[in-house]
Write a structure and sequence with these properties.
The protein is α/β, with parallel strands linked by helices. About 45% of the residues lie in helices and about 20% in strands. Helix 2 packs antiparallel against helix 8, helix 3 crosses helix 4 and helix 7 crosses helix 10.
Length: about 230
């Protein structure tokens, strides 16, 4: 793991105990609706699903609740996040392990579905991580990515330049005692790929039928695609 990844890992470890609360506050609970809408882009009920950058298991648990997965295996490079979410997954068909998105500890074709919510920006190499997701999926498998992508239109640009730059760090400092973590959140969005670039990356990684859905005027996005059968 390189120095940047180690720094980001430590940052998420520091805010793990307040991660769910901050997500709800900063999105006015819209993040819950965004995950549900994104999961409805999937068809059928995949048996085994990888939830990469699973954090405290919000997306995986929602997938099970909506009948979009029978079993979820969460993977995250930050163990304190997995610990923070452990009580939420108790008694559910959701397991977890620590792992690196660029070197997933799973065999080729291990899963019917793979998903990642708000973690793609932190993987270091968007294409390499997409190729890893493609590798661990079986033919016909589905992928789902929910993410803050670099804005290209006036409204999301304005949102991140104002609310994102000022409110994210202020609330992060107040509720988690770590303003820098939420300053990183806003900065990482500006450095990440745009929606058209994200579609191209998934196609280059070997996915087909790439579809997208935008939330809050393009502040957040979901992308769904398939592995050729």
């Amino acid at each position: 793991m390189d120095a940047h990844a180690t720094q980001v890992q430590g940052m998420f470890g520091r805010i793990a105990h307040r991660y769910d609360l901050l997500n709800r506050v900063l999105s006015a609970r819209r993040d819950v609706a965004w995950r549900r809408a994104a999961l409805n882009m999937w068809s059928g009920t995949p048996e085994d699903v990888l939830d990469l950058a699973c954090g405290t298991f919000d997306l995986g648990l929602e997938a099970v609740a909506l009948g979009k997965s029978r079993r979820v295996h969460g993977c995250d490079f930050c163990q304190p996040m997995l610990v923070a979410g452990a009580a939420k997954r108790a008694g559910r068909p959701v397991t977890a392990s620590v792992g690196d998105a660029l070197r997933l500890p799973y065999a080729d074709g291990a899963f019917d579905g793979a998903m990642a919510a708000y973690g793609w920006r932190n993987f270091g190499d968007p294409l390499a991580s997409a190729q890893e997701l493609r590798r661990v999926l079986r033919p016909g498998g589905q992928v789902l990515i929910v993410e803050f992508l670099r804005p290209t239109h006036w409204w999301p640009k304005t949102f991140y330049a104002t609310f994102g730059a000022a409110v994210f760090p202020a609330v992060g400092g107040l509720l988690a005692g770590d303003a820098s973590a939420y300053r990183y959140l806003n900065d990482s969005i500006k450095r990440f790929v745009s929606l058209p670039e994200a579609v191209q990356i998934l196609e280059r990684a070997g996915f087909t039928d790439v579809r997208s859905l935008s939330f809050f005027g393009g502040v957040s996005h979901a992308l769904a695609a398939r592995v050729p059968a």
